[in-house]
Write a structure and sequence with these properties.
Number of strands: 0
Mean pLDDT: 78
Helix content: over 70%
Low-confidence stretches: none
Strand content: under 5%
Number of helices: 4
Shape: rod-shaped
Radius of gyration: 37 Å
Order of helices and strands: HHHH
């Protein structure tokens, strides 16, 4: 290796203290591709089923070669349907988890409203002070009337 390649390799491997090096992520398959894979899998399953059914029913022109092709279509279609469905569901699950994580971060960053709880003694003092205020107001009103 040349020295430039070694330097580039060392630069990419350097991490800050406490940082966990992340694995390289595989490129994501677009949702469109997964949906097309599911549809193609369904079509291949249907085509394979029809080929096998025609051979078993004895339709003219149906040979055992078509039956073998039908079985191959069924296998390939089932694999495509399974992989496309699994990847689609996995992607949706990741999206939901990401949204939940974002809402959790938002909840944590917003100041939490603290509920003020009062003890029985504090409530009693509050009630007494309200009664005292009410008595002084009624005394002031009666003195004005006189």
């Amino acid at each position: 290796m040349s020295e430039q390649d070694k330097m580039t390799e060392q630069e990419t491997e350097v991490t800050t203290p406490g940082e966990i090096p992340q694995e390289e992520k595989k490129p994501e398959v677009p949702t469109r591709s997964m949906i097309l894979m599911i549809l193609a899998g369904c079509y291949l399953l249907y085509t394979g089923y029809r080929l096998c059914k025609n051979v078993l029913d004895g339709v003219e022109g149906g040979s055992w070669g078509f039956f073998a092709a039908g079985v191959g279509f069924i296998v390939v279609g089932a694999v495509m349907l399974f992989k496309g469905g699994r990847n689609y569901l996995r992607r949706e699950k990741e999206k939901r988890a990401e949204q939940e994580a974002q809402t959790q971060v938002i909840r944590e960053t917003q100041p939490a409203e603290e509920k003020k709880t009062m003890s029985i003694a504090e409530r009693a003092r509050l009630a007494e002070s309200l009664d005292d205020v009410g008595e002084t107001e009624t005394q002031a009103d009666t003195e004005k009337e006189e």
